[in-house]
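FAQ

Q: What does a record look like?
A: Structure on top, sequence underneath. For example:
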């Protein structure tokens, strides 16, 4: 057991959630999920219909393109599937969305996407191939069909006002028409969690019916019986399938004050400085876009308290985003007692004198804040497991924290075991590049089912 200065312990105690607190969160999440399935308004968890009736079954074949807009990253992928028993191959290119585009106009955003697509198709000699496209748009949308999605609100630092309440497939198609000489067709639009679920189901089989993304933001989707989505009038909407994937959008949980008891002063500061104050608290407690900021603010306080760096000031730590979440992964990626990355990071933060005592504190702060996030995600997943009442399920997990944070998967698994009734068997199965691959797979499902 490490002995930390009492000032550090006092702050970190606020981030350590006990079992009762997590159970309480989990129960409230379950209630909100049930309410979200019954009513369009009122629940902090929206439970949005996706119009996707089935998951890929492995027999898919052909070439598909996926466009995946998730936070600052725009990924475009060419996926080639050769049918049952084979692993799909893919080529992917990443493009970065500039800050001014994230807060600019719809025209700027969709022209940027189309320009990247044009470049991608040229690079792979696909300009005339007219390939079907799956489009991942990882922001909350009300779907009107598998090819029509009305943007409800932005998250993850985006704020493009003229896109709100607009059909983002229509916006993409308009931009394609204006800017591209060749024809491409959008076969399906979906949330990134739907893509993640599809990719995992394709890889791990039909027992996989839940998808969770823990990336810049955090959200989930799962296969539900259409009859249990009681707010959804399937007949009136012309939907005649027994099942449908539901996108929970659980990142909004907390907007009615459900998390007030556990928010620390540091969380409140991160929230106050964010583009969407008071919203997406789960993203802010668990997502990669924010947890580095929470760590930074704690470290900055510890400098003020004169426990870190022997009280020498560290101006860099007072600058927004000077402690990106990738630092957390690098620090926790080292064996205990090794502090190479931590030393380098202190140098990057321009701290003049630093030593082992500081590294131990920094490492502990990174661990405790990551662990809190993983525990909250586990509480939310266990709510979903209870709601589904399945005796055995595979949960497809993906996103930056699963892919790059060295201890996240293990922490999530341990907490989930602690919070889930012993009779429910679950397995966390990772699928890298999941959302993007899944989009291509869902486009194939849409073609097969003639949706
Ligand atoms: C978005 C979700 C998305 C999640 C993970 C959240 O901020 O609102 O729609 O699935 O991030 O990317």
């Amino acid at each position: 057991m490490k002995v930390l200065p009492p000032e550090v312990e006092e702050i970190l105690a606020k981030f350590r959630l006990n079992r009762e607190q997590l159970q309480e969160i989990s129960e409230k999440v379950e209630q909100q999920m049930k309410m979200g399935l019954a009513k369009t308004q009122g629940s902090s968890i929206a439970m949005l219909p996706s119009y996707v009736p089935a998951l890929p079954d492995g027999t898919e074949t052909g070439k598909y393109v996926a466009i995946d807009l998730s936070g600052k990253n725009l990924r475009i992928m060419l996926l080639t599937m050769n049918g049952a028993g084979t692993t799909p191959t893919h080529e992917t290119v990443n493009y970065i969305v500039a800050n001014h585009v994230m807060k600019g106009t719809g025209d700027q955003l969709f022209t940027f996407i189309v320009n990247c697509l044009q470049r991608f198709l040229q690079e792979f000699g696909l300009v005339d191939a007219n390939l079907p496209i799956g489009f991942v748009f990882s922001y909350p949308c009300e779907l009107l069909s598998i090819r029509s999605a009305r943007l409800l609100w932005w998250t993850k630092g985006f704020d493009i006002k003229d896109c709100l309440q607009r059909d983002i497939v229509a916006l993409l198609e308009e931009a394609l028409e204006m800017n591209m000489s060749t024809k491409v067709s959008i076969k399906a639009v979906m949330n990134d969690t739907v893509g993640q679920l599809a990719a995992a189901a394709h890889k791990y089989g039909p027992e996989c019916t839940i998808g969770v993304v823990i990336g810049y933001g955090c959200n989930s989707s799962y296969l539900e019986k259409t009859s249990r989505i009681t707010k959804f009038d399937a007949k009136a909407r012309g939907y005649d399938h027994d099942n449908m994937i539901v996108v929970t959008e659980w990142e909004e949980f907390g907007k009615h004050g459900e998390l007030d008891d556990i928010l620390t002063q540091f969380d409140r500061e991160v929230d106050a400085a964010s583009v969407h104050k008071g919203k997406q608290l789960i993203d802010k407690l668990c997502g990669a876009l924010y947890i580095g900021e929470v760590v930074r603010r704690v470290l900055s306080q510890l400098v003020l308290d004169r426990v870190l760096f022997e009280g020498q000031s560290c101006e860099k730590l007072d600058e927004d985003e000077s402690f990106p979440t990738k630092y957390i992964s690098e620090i926790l990626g080292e064996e205990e007692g090794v502090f190479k990355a931590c030393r380098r990071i202190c140098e990057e933060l321009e701290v003049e004198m630093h030593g082992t005592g500081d590294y131990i504190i920094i490492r502990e702060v990174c661990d405790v804040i990551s662990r809190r996030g993983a525990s909250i995600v586990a509480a939310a997943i266990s709510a979903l497991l209870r709601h589904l009442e399945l005796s055995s399920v595979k949960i497809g997990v993906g996103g930056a924290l699963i892919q790059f944070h060295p201890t996240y998967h293990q922490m999530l698994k341990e907490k989930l075991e602690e919070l889930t009734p012993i009779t429910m068997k679950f397995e966390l199965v990772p699928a890298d590049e999941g959302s993007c691959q899944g989009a291509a797979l869902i486009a194939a499902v849409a073609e097969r089912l003639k949706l």
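Q: Is there anything notable about this one?
A: The mean pLDDT is 95.
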